[in-house]
User: Fold these one by one.
Assistant:
Number 1:
Amino acid sequence: MTNINEFIAGWKSHRNVLHDMLTDVTTEQLSYKPWEKGMSLAGLVLHITGAMDMFAKTVQNGVYTPGAKPAMPATIEELKSVVATATEQTEAVLRSLTPEQLAAPIDFFGNSLPGVVLLQNAKDHEIHHKGQLFVYLRLVGVEKLPFFVSKG
């Protein structure tokens, strides 16, 4: 990553798809779990958005900064609103990061990583879980899904 704007553009090409993936999801499908101990569909979406926020704030603060746990949304409209708000807030944190914060080493569960590497791990984490969400959506019968990245 050369600069934070390039990172944000790459991240948003994936995050925008998360928004699109929820287009045909119904409120009744939010509680779906593919196995007993798995996250629910809504829980997985909240994990995706919350994790990126946690990583961004960790880089911003220079130390592990746990994210807030939002309440489980009761409707798909609430979930879409949470995703939109979380995306805006995380993007604002990312845009505020300085070159010094991106270069600074951060202790993250026993690993010392520069902020920029931690953010790349965060994006990879989001991509991984977005892939899981594609499977969840197929399992609940959603037939029309977007491409895995958006153009902008």
Note: The domain at 4-139 is CATH 1.20.120.450 (Four Helix Bundle (Hemerythrin (Met), subunit A)).
Number 2:
Amino acid sequence: MTREEFEDAVRDALDEIPAELAAMMDNVVVLVEDHAPADDPELLGLYEGTPLTERGEFWAAGSLPDRITIYRHPTLALCADRDEVVEEVAVTVVHEIAHHFGIDDDRLHALGWG
């Protein structure tokens, strides 16, 4: 799968987020990178920022956007075909967005989004 096709899969996954939920996302950008960090090369996605549940009254003063990064090569390595990639991207996007809303990995695994 080319980078452009992968980015389209990420875009499609974002389009599937319910409008009410997407409207509640605040100061967050979603990026695609080819490779995961060297210390975790199999990582599929990463949320970096301050979850909405932890933001205080003065949080936004000078804050950079939160980042959700979806990693292409680890996802491609995990999946056997295009359909699996699209499904895994959708799960990863939901998983990382959930972190933006303050939902931790244990809860996500319990809900089947781990």
Note: The chain has one domain: 3-50+64-111.
Number 3:
Amino acid sequence: MAWNIGKSILGTGEMRVDVEREADVIFAAAFIGATLFQNRKNSGLAWRVDMDPSTELGTNRDARTADDRAFMKGLNDACAKVNHLVRTELAKDEGGLVWGLAPTFNRGGMIQAGEGARSEYRRFKPAYARSAFRYLSAARRAAKEGQRAEEMYIGRGAYCGLVVDNDGNAVTAMSTICTTLDEHTPGIGERWRPPADADVRAAQYPAEARTATWGLIGGAALQATLAQQGMRFYPQSDGQLVPLDVDTDIVGYTHGMIRCVYETVRMGQGTAFEMSIGVETFKLASCMACSCFMVANDVEASSTHLGRGESWSPYFSSESHNPSYHADKMRIDDAIAHCNSRYSTFMHRCLQDGVAAMTKRPSWINERHIEALSALDRRLAAGATANNTVARDLFLDAMTYHKGDLDRLNSTLDFGSDARPFCNEGHDWSCVTHSGPVGGRSWETWVNPHTDEEVLALHTAPEPLV
């Protein structure tokens, strides 16, 4: 299938700002549609997204507090905007979106996939968490800080997926991998690859506009660091990475949890977890891109956050798979096709529903994003059906333009002319939950709970699990 090689995803213009607005709108539509799906599935109960207090190294507590409050303000604004659209679409004053704090990080804490995983985790904790950590961090040979960097990516944003069978045995582990995709990749669909002279390339890769393969996180120079931190790159030939081609390829990153979901489907049993084993990432919540894939495959994340899903991608090849010893319930290639088909159907529904809710209330859409919304509506009407990958591929294309998910939402949505006040006759959504997302206190007086010494210890001397 021929790829889109225009200078923007939806063709609204040729500049970086046009791509940004298109990516904003695609994400916002998918997120609103996913919120509608969750509300309908859960009989009107609100869908919760979480944030974690900052643990950024090199900043003091006051600076982390300021960052937390700014993010909380953004969450409040996004909740109020999304909830007006969702509740009006559902014709009910219930449901929508709420936000809270992600589970408190502790060494051995894990993100769980589905109710079965939650029950399994509760049953074995804490001894189970210690054994899982040992399994994930054991090295085949000596590696820095005792971590098996050659097998598990342990850098920023890294979570290691773990598969536990029905007998409670940890049977395989997988971390984030980087894959190169082209028009011949099986199941790839119709993706967007901006040409070498596109303005968006110069904006995203200012020092490597004509050499960095589209989708790379941080550009080509960062890849050596990621490799040192344990990330694996595919496809390979005789154990060596097939060279990237800036003119034909795009790059995607498949997270450890998603890889493990494929394995549980291949096995026909077991549960998937994800644990941070490095010293750079601590939030116990799945990114929105992972969460949508998980919801589509009936294994909802224990916590979801609006962070960054940069160049997120599902599997398209079993070359990089790390199977357990369990016999096939389904061939891995069939498991990939099965999960990806469900994901495509889910993203079709989310984008269709999200666009419908947005187009009915234009005063709630930032005027600079109206053209992109209209273009998305036309694109879906022209070619997207529940059994093809058009909607899925548009979402994946949007993820290759790197921007925070919360910023995408608040850039796309405005407070409209018919605003419905929610809390105290305003738009502060923090009073929706029983005690509020910050324990009954206003986010405006929030103080980051981590001392400078605690943050330093997290990054340099984390509590061991032995």
Note: The chain has one domain: 16-178+251-454.
Number 4:
Amino acid sequence: MSSFQTGHIGLNVTDLTKSLDFYQRVFGFTTAGERQHEGRRYAFLFQGSTLMLTLWQQSEGRFATARPGLHHLSFQVADLAAVQEAEAVIREIGATLHHDGVVPHGEGASSGGVFFEDPDGIRLEIFAPDGAGDRPAPTSGAPTCGFF
């Protein structure tokens, strides 16, 4: 059997300009290939030479968390300092932040991060593999990322 790894992630957005600004500021992604086709706009976002996200301006409303489909996107960083840098930007731009900042993934876990939303309500996580264990877990008996 073949070995699989995640490639890029494609997201439908309502306002490409707003989403580009958000993902560039929070994640530091660079834009390559913003285009328009038959009135529809789209863009490719990279981290270095790696395609990370494609954004497609072709939706309306807010992300529907009560419907089947995507639960959240999670991005790992090297350490808790990088999580805290992202948290500062999230707070600065006024994005919805859950759990009021950095929390562990669960009771007794050393890994943890921030849980927040993009401009369309898509749930996101930035985490580090350790360093968050001294904080209280917001959810008892279940993974923090499961219920936000």
Note: The CA atoms of residues 99 and 138 lie 7 Å apart.
